[in-house]
Amino acid sequence: MGATGATGNALVRGLLALGIPVRALTRTPHLPLPGLIGTHRPTVEVRYADAADAHSLRTAFHGADQLFLAMANGPQQVELETRVIDIAADSGIRHIVKVSAPAAEPNSPVAVSRGHHAVEEHLRARGLPHTVLRPYAFMQNLLRLAPTVGQGVILGTTGDAACNHVDCRDIADVAAAALTSPDVAGGVHTLTGSEAVSYPDIARRLSALTGERIRYVDLSPDELRDHLVHRAHMPDWLAEHVTEIQRLAVARPETPTTTVADILGRPPRTLDAFLTEHRARFNRRAEDAADAEHRRATQSP
Ligand SMILES: NC(=O)c1ccc[n+]([C@@H]2O[C@H](COP(=O)([O-])OP(=O)(O)OC[C@H]3O[C@@H](n4cnc5c(N)ncnc54)[C@H](OP(=O)(O)O)[C@@H]3O)[C@@H](O)[C@H]2O)c1
Fold first, then answer.
1. Positive or negative torsion for Cα 107, 237, 100, 274
2. Quick one: which atom of ligand 1 is closest to the CA of 76?
3. For residue 90, what are the CA distances in angstroms to 56, 57, 64, 185, 225?
4. Binding site membership of 168 for ligand 1 (Cβ less than 6 Å)
5. How far is Cα 115 from Cα 155, in angstroms, rounded to an integer?
6. 44-72: pLDDT as tens digits
7. C-alpha span between 290 and 277 (Å, rounded)
8. What is the mean pLDDT of the chain?
9. How far is the CA of 7 from the centre of ligand 1 (A)?
């Protein structure tokens, strides 16, 4: 579940590359699965499933033996994931790999993490074998900064605090290991990249990479929340979530774990490699040139 999401989509591709049959679940099975147009389409079974629709889950889980569960954040997340787990257990699924989050504790200062804790507890209570992945912030989230980076700023409330980031493709590789290796299955794995980097440092690295002047602007938590709601048009709960996560990074200094390397036997993908790979997204001049080229190419003769 979550086959169209950042981690789930990378996992589908990873499992297909390993020759493992995959059923990719989405609420929009009529749309092409991202990254799989053409090549793998005939070998991946794409099915409709909505966690809000118990019948669709029963149908989708029929005959499956393991479940990867990555569910978008939202006010209903605990209710939806709990239902998914119950129906998976009743459908004969024998192992669930769940994407959780750091600080999944009953009194966590991050509401989404309290929700993940509740779901993890439900997994334990059901007695169903499971693996929990607790990744820190996805590097892929940084692409959402591209619009303000294009204006020369990164806004946040983390100050100089170092923050862990992990590439979703590494989370997917660990998930694939959990689904295929008894040594990895059954654990609680906290996943990070190889270094914790502050946002001012990310701004410096992006400046060097793009040749643009990009600076980090530190806001108070209230200012950040206000910006996210009124300028970035985020729903209130998501703006609150982003602000809580950033405050947690200040309250609890983040350091990398060696889990990705321990499990995969290779170092995690680096932040610099990720930024370089996506340089054009952050670079105003490159974007402008691409837009101009696109306009030229699509203009009537
Ligand atoms: N983003 C981060 O930095 C980060 C860090 C740590 C942990 N996490 C955790 O990772 C998980 C995934 O987060 P994300 O924001 O990155 O997700 P995402 O990549 O945007 O993917 C969300 C997935 O959830 C599926 N989904 C949403 N509602 C659904 C429903 N009612 N029934 C079935 N599927 C549904 C979507 O499938 P369709 O739309 O195709 O149906 C989509 O594939 C979250 O639980 C989050 O707490 C995220």
1. negative
2. 31
3. 14, 11, 12, 20, 41
4. no
5. 27
6. 899 999 999 999 999 999 999 999 999 99
7. 16
8. 93
9. 8
For residue 196, give the H/E element and its range: strand 196-198
DSSP of 198-238: EHHHHHHHHHHHHSS--EEEE--HHHHHHHHHHTS---HHH
- Angle among Cα 258, 261, 267 to the nearest 5 degrees reads 110
Domains present along the chain, CATH in parentheses: 6-138+167-192+255-268 (3.40.50.720)
Collapsing DSSP to helix, strand or coil, 242 comes out as helix
The ligand 1 atom nearest the CA atom of 135 = 6
Please state the atom number of ligand 1 nearest to the C-alpha of residue 9: 43
- Please indicate whether residue 6, judged by its CB atom, sits closer than 6 Å to ligand 1: yes
Threshold 0.90, pTM exceeds: yes
Q: Is 99's C-beta closer than 6 angstroms to any atom of ligand 1?
A: yes
User: Hey, how many other C-beta atoms are within 10 angstroms of the C-beta on 90?
Assistant: 12
Under the banding of pLDDT at 50, 70 and 90, the label for residue 301 is very low
Contact 70, 235 (CB under 8 A): no
Q: How far is the CA of 209 from the centre of ligand 1 (A)?
A: 30
> Count of residues for the chain?
301
CA-based nearest residue to 78, from 127, 114, 124, 130? 114
Sign of CA dihedral 93, 72, 245, 199: positive
Picking from 194, 145, 185, 189, the residue whose alpha carbon sits closest to that of residue 167 is 194
Burial of 164 from C-beta contacts in 10 A (0-12 / 13-18 / 19+): buried
